[in-house]
Automatic annotation (TrEMBL):
<dbReference type="InterPro" id="IPR015424">
    <property type="entry name" value="PyrdxlP-dep_Trfase"/>
</dbReference>
<dbReference type="InterPro" id="IPR015421">
    <property type="entry name" value="PyrdxlP-dep_Trfase_major"/>
</dbReference>
<keyword id="KW-0032">Aminotransferase</keyword>
<dbReference type="InterPro" id="IPR050596">
    <property type="entry name" value="AspAT/PAT-like"/>
</dbReference>
<feature type="domain" description="Aminotransferase class I/classII large">
    <location>
        <begin position="21"/>
        <end position="352"/>
    </location>
</feature>
<dbReference type="InterPro" id="IPR004838">
    <property type="entry name" value="NHTrfase_class1_PyrdxlP-BS"/>
</dbReference>
<keyword id="KW-0808">Transferase</keyword>
<dbReference type="GO" id="GO:0008483">
    <property type="term" value="F:transaminase activity"/>
</dbReference>
<comment type="similarity">
    <text>Belongs to the class-I pyridoxal-phosphate-dependent aminotransferase family.</text>
</comment>
<dbReference type="Pfam" id="PF00155">
    <property type="entry name" value="Aminotran_1_2"/>
</dbReference>
<dbReference type="InterPro" id="IPR004839">
    <property type="entry name" value="Aminotransferase_I/II_large"/>
</dbReference>
<comment type="subunit">
    <text>Homodimer.</text>
</comment>
<keyword id="KW-0663">Pyridoxal phosphate</keyword>
<protein>
    <recommendedName>
        <fullName>Aminotransferase</fullName>
        <ecNumber>2.6.1.-</ecNumber>
    </recommendedName>
</protein>
Amino acid sequence: MDYEKPLFFRVMQYAERADRDVIDMVSGNPDWEPPEALREGLREYADLPVSEYQYPPSDGLRELREEIASRRNVPIESVIVTNGTGEANYLAMAAALDRDAGEEVVLTDPVYPYYPGKTGMLGGEPVYAPVEEDGRLDPDAVRERANEDTAAIVVNSPNNPTGAVYGEDTVEALVEIAEECDAILVSDEVYDHFDHSGRFASALSVDSEHRAVTTGFSKSMAITGLRVGYTVLPPELAEPARTRHMLVNVAGSRPAQHAVLRALRETDPDYYEANRAMLEERIDAFTDALDAAGAEYTRPDGAFYVLARFDGFPGTMENVERLIDEAGVAGMPGDAFGESREDWLRFALVTPRAQEAADRLASFFN
């Protein structure tokens, strides 16, 4: 089977080859500091005995799983620690498709491109539900496309790339739809610490055997390189997912899990609030500059991405390359996220140079 290489890598490689200074607004790599307790956990680990350098339990350090289960009010048996949220999504989607309850996976349009990529890799068939212009998801759009052949409904809130946040009513309706068609709602909540609206509702707030939650610490703790995520699965899906995880990975990183556990226990909520406030300031500055450039844009209610549309400048790879070469700003082409946003460009505000990037865009388009 041929797999399509994610476009992110092509854009980043092109930007790296540029012969000028380029501001990277492509990937969601946080530029702020991780919790100090996490650094202390890594330093502490370096001096532990050699026995602590061997395989951890395949489904994660028990102490970490206990901490997660306690915080999320779920049974520890439902928690599998994964190599980032990406693997958590893979396990949850695979578990949904392995039930022989259908082959279709309902996704949103626009969509984070790794979801359709995983769908194809797992032998599923993607079906797309459009969202509103501002990114809001009407559950009726999902209901119209869900049927007896639907294995999974995959959503992301706060959303990449739209910045939409799904509230309690939307989440409850999505779980209800999954129950009606014997599907699994896979709710990717990796940006849950970056809710700027106060409306975010986790799928774990709904008691159902038809919902799985995936998330991780890459964004909230600014540690995309440590690869610590987790999934919370219904009991009957957890054991086969645990086996698949073992066969694919054997285990995760013991030092990374140790450090995350210490950071969970010792990091004050002010850490997360400060980062959220900093991002909101960046959003204000970036969108103000987009106003000056005459751009149309979506102001994110969550996460840290802005979709922008410039008149006569569709979001193609060719135009992304042109912005890199002529403006010194690297973003993502909108058509990477689906047909509905092919005229748009997506910018990740995880750089201290976000204001400078916006000024460069304003100069380019004016």
